Amino acid sequence: MSATQIIFWFLSALALVSALMVLLSKNPVHSVLWLISVFFAISGHYILLNAQFLAIVNLIVYAGAIMVLFLFVIMLMNLNKDMEPQKNMWMKLAGAISGGCLLMILVSLVRQATEIGGKVAEMKTGNIGLIGNLGKVLFNEYVVPFEISSVLFLSAMVGAIVIGKKD
Amino acid sequence: MNAIILSALLGVVMMFSSILTENRTIIRNIAIAGLLILLIGNLLNTYTVYSFNIDSHNMLRFDKFGLFFNSIAIASTLLYAILSGSDVVKVGNYPAESFALIFFALCGVAILSSYNTLLMLFLGIEIMSIPLYILTGSDKKNLKSNEASLKYFLMGCFSTGILLMGITLLYGASGNFNIESVHSTSNAVTTSYNYGILAPLGLILIFISMCFKVSAAPFHFWTPDVYDGAPSVFTSFMATIVKAAGFIAFIKLFSIRMADLGPSSSIILSTIIIATLLVGNITAVFQQSVKRMLAYSSIAQAGFMLFALYGNNDLSSEGILLYSAAYSIATIGIFAILIKMKDYTFDGYNGLAKKQPLVAAANTVFLLSLAGIPLTAGFFAKYYMLASALKSNGHAVLWLVIVAVLFAAVSVYYYFRVIQAMYFKEGEAETTEISSKFKAGLVVMAILIILIGINPSFLLNWFYF
Prior knowledge:
Shape of chain B: globular
Number of domains of chain A: 2
Number of helices of chain B: 20
Structural class of chain B: mainly alpha
Oligomer: heterodimer
Radius of gyration of chain B: 21 Å
Order of helices and strands of chain A: HHHHHH
CATH class of the largest domain in chain A: Mainly Alpha
Largest sheet of chain B: none
Structural class of chain A: mainly alpha
Number of helices of chain A: 6
Strand content of chain A: under 5%
Helix content of chain A: over 70%
Radius of gyration of chain A: 21 Å
Number of strands of chain B: 0
Strand content of chain B: under 5%
Order of helices and strands of chain B: HHHHHHHHHHHHHHHHHHHH
Helix content of chain B: over 70%
CATH superfamily of the largest domain in chain A: NADH-ubiquinone/plastoquinone oxidoreductase chain 6, subunit NuoJ
C-alpha cells in the first residue's frame, strides 16, 4: 500500500465518520465542529486529485465563512433541551422521503454512469483544478464580466457605508 | 462600451467629489456635468465616431437599438438630475454617494441594453438593482423607507435566485451562456443526450424573474410598498429609467427565445398582460395618495410595455423606445411636482392651478400623456405597442388589444382625478418653494412630450440616423 493510498483511506474514513457524527451528536455546536472536519477531509481529497484551488476555496468558503455563520446562528438561537422545537411525525416522514429521494437519485446516477465503472481516480494528474488555468480563462474569455463585476462590488461597498455608517 | 466604462468611472468620480466638497449644489452640478459627458460619450458610440475598443469575446453586442436606448435612459436621467437634483442631495447625509449609485445603476442599464450572454444579463441586473436597494433605504430616519428597502432587497434576492436557477437550467440544456439557443458542439454530453425539458423550464424561471423586475402581475406585490416607502426622488428614478431598462433586457432575451417556451407561450404572455392591466388599473382607482396611485399606474403601464414581447417586430422595437422615452419623461415630471407638494393625497392638489398655473398646466400634459390622449407622446407609445401586436399576430390578438384599450380608458379616470383636483376644486395646495428654473424645466419637458406626440418620428429619426 503506497502512501497516497494510505492517505486516501484515512481521509475517506475521517470524512464518513465525521459525517455520521454530524448527525449523531446531540449538541448542535458539536455537529458544526464535526462538519468542519468533514470539509477538511474533502479538501484533502481534492488535493489528492490535483485540484489545489478547489481545496483551498473549499476551506476558505465552507470551513471558514459558512461555518462561522452556522456557529453564530446556533449560538444566537441559544438552543437547549427544553427549548428544542417539537418535531411531529409528518416532519420526520417528509424528511425521510426527501432524503431517500436524493439517495435514490445519487445511486441511480452512479449505476448509470458506465464509463466510470471499475475505474480508480487518477491521482496527481490532470491540471483542470490548478489556479493557473482558472486565471487564464478568467483573464481571456471572461475578462469583461470579471472586470465589470468590480462595479457591482464597488456599489455594494458604497451601499454598506451609506446604510451602515452612524450619522 | 463607452456608456459602461464612463458611467462606472463617473460613479467613482462622484464618490471622490464627496471628499473634496460638502457643498450640495456643487455636487449636483458635478453630477449634471457627468451625465452630459456620459450622454456625449454614448452618442459618439452610437454614430460610430469613437468608442473604446475592447474585445468582450462576444459577451456584449452593441447594436443601434441598445445604444439608442442608452441615450434615452441617460437623457432621462439628465432631465431628472436637472429637475430633481436639488431634492436628491437633500435626502440623507451622503448626497455625492447617491449620485454615485445612480451612475452605477446606469452602468447596469448600459449592460442590460447590450448583453449577449446570460452571464452579462445576471451581472447587469445585479449592478442595476443593488444601488436601488440602497437608494430606497437612504432616508435612514424614516421607518417606511427602511421597511421598503428591506422588502425590496428580499424580493430582489428571491427573484435573482430564480433567475440564476433559470440560467443554470439553460446552461445545462445548451452547454453555454449564449442567449441564442445554440448547442455548443464541443460539449459531448449535451449533444448525445436530449435534455428537451430543461430549456423551456429554464426560460420559464427567467421569465418569472424578469416579470418580478418589471413588476408585472402576479409578481407585482413589492411594487406599491417599495415605491410608496422610498424617498420620492428615488421612486422617480426607479419607476422610469430602471423599469424601462428591465423591459429592454426582457425583450432582448425573449424576442429570440420566446418560441422555445413552446406553443403555450402566447397564452402565458396574454394572461400576464391581462393580469397586469387589471391589477394595475383597478387598484389605482381606489388609491387616496397620488404617490401610491403612481405606483399602481406604473404596474398598469408595464402591462402595455409587455405588448412589445407579443409583437416582436420592427414596430415593437421602435415602440418600446418611444414608450420608454414618453413614459420616463412624463413620470419624471409628475414626480418632480409631487416632491414639491406638502400633501401627497389627491386633496393636496386642490386648487394648484390658481396658485401655480404653469406647474399645473405642465402636470396636466404629463398626466394626459400617461393616459394616452392624442397629441401627447403617450398616445403614440400605446399605439405602437398595440399596432405591433396586431401586425405580428393578425386578428388572433384583436380581443387582447380591445381589452387593453378598455383598461386605458379606466386609467383616464384616476389620472383625471388629479387634473380635476388641480383645476376644479377649491383649496390651498401647499407647495415648497418652486424656483423659476424648475418651472422652465417643466415647460421644456411638456413641450418635448407634445412634440413627440405630434410627430413621433422626431424621436425615431435619430434611431435611423
